[in-house]
Design goal:
single chain, 131 residues, mainly beta, seven-stranded mixed beta sheet, 11 strands
């Protein structure tokens, strides 16, 4: 099993920045963190969970939801078993619980936006953006 733990959420003013981190531990079938595609999702009150960003095993490929493109940056440090989400120019509509997710990549670099594609999830961290 892979355990994921998010951190870095909080209450900020619109226009501010936050950096979310996700620490991974454990493994499946002896795989390492670099064997997993990683993603960030978010769920606002009363709404379904939605895709935010994804990054390939090596970090060479990334993909973003249109709503965050140009403002958010996903990155990973395989040596530290961690993935981050740098969020700039935050807006009130970014308010949500943010979740880190992992999918064993089977050696590929395909990125996934569907939450059903991910096998492991963190508990989430709250981000609140005040207007």
């Amino acid at each position: 099993q892979v355990q994921l733990a998010e951190s870095g959420g909080g209450l900020v003013q619109a226009g501010s920045s936050l950096r979310l981190s996700c620490a991974a531990s454990g493994s499946t079938s002896g795989s390492t963190f670099s064997g997993y595609t990683m993603g960030w999702f978010r769920q606002a009150p009363g709404k379904e969970r939605e895709f935010v960003a994804a990054i390939s095993r090596s970090g060479g490929n990334t993909y973003y939801a249109d709503s965050v493109k140009g403002r958010f940056t996903i990155s990973r440090d395989n040596a530290k078993n961690a993935v981050s989400l740098q969020m700039n120019n935050l807006k009130p509509e970014d308010t949500a619980v943010y979740y880190c997710a992992a999918r064993f990549a089977w050696g590929g670099s395909r990125l996934y936006t569907d939450e059903s594609a991910y096998n492991f999830w963190g508990q989430g961290t709250q981000v609140t953006v005040a207007s």
